[in-house]
Predict the structure.
Amino acid sequence: MWSGQPHPDEGHPPPLEAVPVPWKSVGPCKSHRESPRGLAETPGGEEGPAAAQLDVLRLRSSSMEIREKGSEFLKEELHKAQKELKLKDEECERLSKVREQLERELEELTASLFEEAHRMVREANMKQAASEKQLKEARGKIDMLQAEVSALKTLVLTSTPASPNRELHPQLLSPTKAGPRKGHLRHKSTGSTLCPAVCPAAGHTLALDKEGKEVDTTLFAEFQAWRESPTLDKTCPFLERVYREDVGPCLDFTMQELSALVRAAVEDNTLTIEPVASQSLPTVKVATVECGSTNTCALSGLARACRHRIRLGDSESHYYISPSSRARITAVCNFFTYIRYIQQGLVRQEAEPMFWEITRLRKEMSLAKLGFFPQEA
């Protein structure tokens, strides 16, 4: 195969320097595929060296032309490849940005989903805890109401016209057995019915019983207004007066902070009074007074023999109280229990006996506030 460059070992003369030869003096064009041996067959001719040089020049020119065309072709191919590579780089860069954006959005979505899941779990746990607490409170109230209803049923069922319950009707007790705190006596008409107590504004006078007690018209009018729509709202005139005159002073102990808690627990019916057991109990402090000792009252702060303790709501803390403090709390609890019975429709009486029972309970609160309390057995 002809490579375009003669080799010296084939008998051809070495290439000469470029000699300017006009193209017109050149004989007929010979083919570029002419064998080098053909040039060597006429060494004795006059035109031999010139023709050989001319062929070498042609071969060089042809080789350079081929190189130039090959270089141009390679350049074009390289340019095309560079353009394609640039386009692919741009496409890769665009896809890389898209991937980064998708990864970022995926991370944000995952984080938001985890946060939402944790929030939902936390809310579910809070709702479950609140529901369990409400269920526990409701069960406690149901048990308490069932016990109260059972006690009332027992009292009502044991009181019949043939065999009245003397605890429900203290006026049936003999004068020697009926003490001043066993209720009140009532006047009876010829028909053995109660004389209704009516507001004096209507032109009637209220009855006086045999003990010389007289119904306060203002208090009775407030009670009747409350009885028509019984409520535990302490802003109504009837309860507002009882709070101001009896409940507030009766529960006003030396330890103000604990007194407020006790009053709230009594109003919510969540206070528990327990006898002191023999085992040791955890100590609880209110302000700077040690209340964990059975020899110190947590409410008054005085050194007293405490045979009972109180617990507020669901708290595990216990507070030791003296007999006097217990009597004051018990008197207020008895009052609230009775007005709750009235509100729930469990008391089937007329207005006057209900009013006198409330008056008796108010009297017990006043006596307990003054320090009078029944001696414990």
In short: The chain is about 50% helix and 5% strand. Residues 71 and 77 are 10 Å apart (CA to CA).
